[in-house]
Amino acid sequence: MSNWPAAATRPARPGGFTLRKLAPYLFLAPFVLLFIAFIVAPLVYAFYMSLYRDTLVGGRQFAGAASYIKVTGDAKFWGGVWNLVLFGIVQVPIMLGLALLFAIVLDRGQVYAKGVFRLGFFLPYAVPSVIATIMWGYLYGPNFGPFTQMAKAFNLPPPDFLSPGAMIFSLANIVTWEYVGYNMVIYYAALKTIPSDLVEASRIDGASAWQFARLIQLPLLWPAILLTIIFSINGTLQLFNEPYLMRALARNTIDSSYTPNLYAYSLATSNQQYGYAAAVSFVLGIVIAGASYIFTLITNRRRPEQ
Amino acid sequence: MTKIFNPLGRTMQRRDFLKVAGASVAVAALPAAVRGADPVKLLLWSWLPDFQTQVDMFNAAHPGIQVKLVNAGQGAPEYQAVRAGLKAGSGLPDVVHIEFQFLESFRQIDAFADIGQWANPHKAEFPEGTWTQVGKGDVVSGMPWDSGPMAMLYRKDILDKHGITPPATWAEFADAAKKLHAADPNVFLTDALLTNGGWVNGLLWPMGWKPISRDGDKLAININDKISKDFAAYWQDLITAGVIETKPGFNNEWYTGLDSGRYATWLTAGWGPVFLTSVAKTSVGQWRAADLPQWDASKFATGNWGGSALAVMKATQHLPEAAELAIWLTTNAEATKLYTTKQFLFPCTTALLTSAEFAGQKMDFYGGQAVNKVFAKSAAAVSNFEWSPFQDFLYQSMEDEFGASISGKGTLSDAFDRIQDAVVTYAKEQGFTVD
């Protein structure tokens, strides 16, 4: 090993086994090993578990695809997925729309205290989602939360953010608050890469701010927007922290299968159905992959003119 | 010659190794006290705060045993770690902190050693109902540590203001709820913690509810019986009348509700009085304790909510020492007394339940009332209860379905029917025979 820097700079003999050929793999090794240990191995193990059934009487038996077949007809699982589809349809466009608006506003030169706003919008992302949920939970408090107090002070009926009808929007609000800044930074970075000659040309041609945003910025941002939509589909379908913590305040509204991940968690803990929990997780993975794939197919077909 | 790697650098020869191995086998067979040189190491899992004090006392009194205390999480997270350890066959403690209500669920997966031969001589030190939590015949799965006999805490100032006497029966409780809310729409007699399985169970207990009885792998599941239907009808009436709340407990909204006078009673357990002093800041001196309201005033009946045991894991390599640890920590006079003054556990031993220091302790928060006496009376009267072999699942179903009915999906009675169906399906899936 002591002569490896010298060996690494020596030109490779064709067909020979040299350290130079090995070097890329050595550089990759730390990532690949951790990836195998913490991503691939648990996935393989989870898949193995999903083929078995653990029961309190009789122990572990091979079940084959039985768990997967059961998931396809499990109303609790699909109910959770449906909750999140509703959640996503409302929340993702609002979140990404706000992120885009903030990014475009910040990108324009004439914003006062730009750094403060940029940091301010991004700050909620730096707050762990657990803390964010506890904080919003306090704000949502139906009897003593600040919104209720304000409503009472004005003799208005207090809003019930935790009711069955409102809960999905209350959760959407928390997630939006958390992730607008994150998406804004992606858009902002993409806006910064727009070549200045395009900006200049549009100015010379007399484009208005709206025309500039619509005809120059949006089309060039399209890849970044696609990326954030895929991320959001992923994140939405895996929602867990926020409903899990909000349960302490609203167990009446959030049951153990409110989202698919919450369901998998309950199956693996309270129910001791480890194999079925693994199968539910895999099917959720397939649903997410499928949703992302369908989305890319659609957007590839109608890509805006560039 | 066979060489065995030794981390200290010295090469150990096979003969040396056998000598050492032979010696340690011989030492292990000796009683702990004789050994001295290499103490038995025990691992103890518990989430009790400041527990190290009593563990140090144990270590000082047992030179042959060294106990390491680890907090592996409170309740559910610890149970998950225990289950993971059982699956993996490693990483388990020797002695573990388990709530009474989950002992049966862990017996189902054969988690515990039988410590009957050492524990049974201590049986008489506990009220009969408490001992039935850990002992079945001569088989003992753990030592009772703390308990949660139920009673009622109430706001004397609020009830006095509206001329209501503390309800002694459930009929009086319902009348008081209606009267109080009519007099002041911002006040509710209670917040029914229906999405807390332990609370519901504790109130069904004195009614004689037997949700799941087992005979080996055969289960009789009677969740939606007459008893639970009566319970459902009673609380449904109060919910429909809008005179009580049904918000989840143990969050800041609820603490403020208790402290600010929104709720005039808390139907709670032996650990409740001290817990309340830690979350209520302005209602000091206004609270009092009374017996749990009764269905039949002539027949005092009560239940348990919470309480826990120290159990010895079957996987322990040091069964006698681990049993000694569980027994000493739950029966030693000095250590058990300290729980009531340092960690404020509600005690299990009859000696403490009847002692002047504990039962007679007057608390300013309760206007100088000896509230422990009320709960100690309840402790002496708690009957046996048969826990299910999958208590987590039962609680989860109860919490899901009561929550759903509070949110408008049917009545509480319908919820019991749905729980019955869910539990029967689950039990069959889990390989039980259901009658």
Question: Summary?
Answer:
The complex is a heterodimer of chains A (306) and B (435). Chain A has 306 residues and is mostly helical. Chain A contains 13 helices and two strands; from the N terminus they run H-H-E-E-H-H-H-H-H-H-H-H-H-H-H.
Question: Could you please describe the fold and organization of this structure?
Answer:
Chain A is 71% helix and 3% strand. Chain A is mainly α. Chain A has a domain at 66-126 and 168-301: MetI-like (MetI-like fold), CATH 1.10.3720. A two-stranded antiparallel ribbon of chain A has the order 1-2. In chain A, helix 2 crosses helix 13 (274-301), helix 8 (167-192) packs across helix 10 and helix 10 (209-237) packs antiparallel against helix 13 (274-301). The longest helix of chain A has 33 residues, at 75-107. Chain A starts with a helix and ends in a 5-residue tail after the last helix. Chain B is of the alpha/beta class and 435 residues long. Chain B has two domains: 3-147 and 306-359, Periplasmic binding protein-like II (D-Maltodextrin-Binding Protein, domain 2); 149-304 and 361-434, Periplasmic binding protein-like II (D-Maltodextrin-Binding Protein, domain 2), CATH 3.40.190.10. Chain B is built from 20 helices and 15 strands. Chain B has helices at residues 14-29, 32-35, 52-61, 76-88, 100-108, 116-119, 128-134, 156-161, 170-183, 197-204, 226-241, 252-260, 272-279, 319-331, 333-343, 350-353, 356-359, 371-381, 391-406, 412-429, and strands at residues 3-4, 12-13, 40-45, 65-70, 95-99, 135-136, 139-140, 142-155, 188-190, 212-215, 218-221, 263-269, 287-290, 304-312, 433-434. In chain B, the strands form four sheets. In chain B, strands 3, 4, 5, 8, 9, 12, 13 and 14 form an eight-stranded mixed beta sheet that branches. Chain B has a three-stranded mixed beta sheet with strand order 10-11-15, with helices on one face. In chain B, strand 10 (212-215) and strand 11 (218-221) form a beta hairpin. The longest helix of chain B is centred in the C-terminal third of the chain and has 18 residues, at 412-429. Chain B is globular. Chain A binds chain B through residues 55-58, 137-138, 141-145, 163-164, 247-257, 266, 269-274, and chain B through 76, 80, 83, 87, 108-109, 195, 217, 246-248, 250-253, 256-257, 260, 262, 389-390, 392-393, 395-396, 399-400, 403-404, 406-408, 426, 429-432.
